[in-house]
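Internal tracking record. Fields below are filled automatically when a chain is submitted to the structure queue. Please do not edit lines marked as system-generated. If the sequence contains nonstandard residues, flag them in the REMARKS field before resubmitting.
Queue: standard
Priority: normal
Entity type: single polypeptide chain
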Amino acid sequence: MPLDQETLDQLLNTVDKFVEQRLRPLESQVGEEDKIPDEVIQEMKDLGFYGLTIPESYGGLGLNMSEEVEVARVFGHTSPAFRSAFGTNVGIGSQSLIIDGTEAQKQKYLPKMATGEIVGSFCLTEPDAGSDAASVKMTAKLDAGDYILNGTKRFITNAPQADLLTVFARTNPAEKGARGVSAFLVDADTKGISMGKPYNKMGQQGAHVCDVIFEDVRVAADTLVGGNENVGFKTAMKVLDKGRLHISALSIGVAERLISDSLKYAMERKQFGQAISEFQLIQAMLADSQTETYAAKCMVADAARRRDSGENVATLAASCKLFSTEMVGRVADRAVQIHGGAGYIEDYGIERFYRDVRLFRIYEGTSQIQQTVIARDMIRRAEQA
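SYSTEM-GENERATED OUTPUT FOLLOWS
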């Protein structure tokens, strides 16, 4: 059930104050140390951020898609690493369970995910399976009623901190495509699981990513998401549709932050005896950024409403992800340009955002995958007409 407007406004106001007063002052520190302070993580847990989308019946806030994108947008006003800390619990780390899990599985994990006691992670990508998610090679073989997992997952967000892994593995080796893949809920401390060294990344310091290696990991049959084999790929796609709208909204929030910082700088910076905001070419960059951000905001709001009403929004989510993430990349580039030399040094934080947003066009499906999803849907509809 959606929140009433007053309650939603109170939530957004709480998030906005936390972002402005608590997180923004820490941006440079987190960028340098590659770590979010433990006390900030605890504050985010206490404020309920880890359970934003987990149903109220399991201790979460139960936000619908329209409400979730509003919160994600406000969190975009600071470094993306902060949102990433709880982002997997809100999105890909919990949604397989929420969408397709059994009641027993939900009861076991969701209440602790809502409080942040359990941090979830989504193990789909492999060395040879990323954009081509259907080519998963990790195996899950039945053995005396259990499954034995073997394989490696790559670039797994929050894996170093994870307690629960949603793992996609091939249960039917005869099926080479999507139909042979199943999803499992695996405790991260299960014997045979090891974590690789966290990657040194271009941006988003403070958000940790590593490989997860499975060597003869024995899991019970009741860890199979929903208790059903060979439907894991369908589960993954449902999760990614939702995640793409979330990342789109986050991109809008970052764009708003960059526009605000750029406008403030342009009005203060003097050249040729006047503020550079008086120069038409600077105004053009500001206007283009504002217009594209507004367009993305309208797209995401529309797609979120449609998803809440029960409509299949796979193609709309792909359209939002494609436009919004490419948009924020352009806005970040213009922000550097408006700031000039100041945009290229760490002091102003613009160069950090420039690096941070580059990932948005890659994870949750690259821009090229979104283009493929959109075009295939266009062709399918034309053939059916």
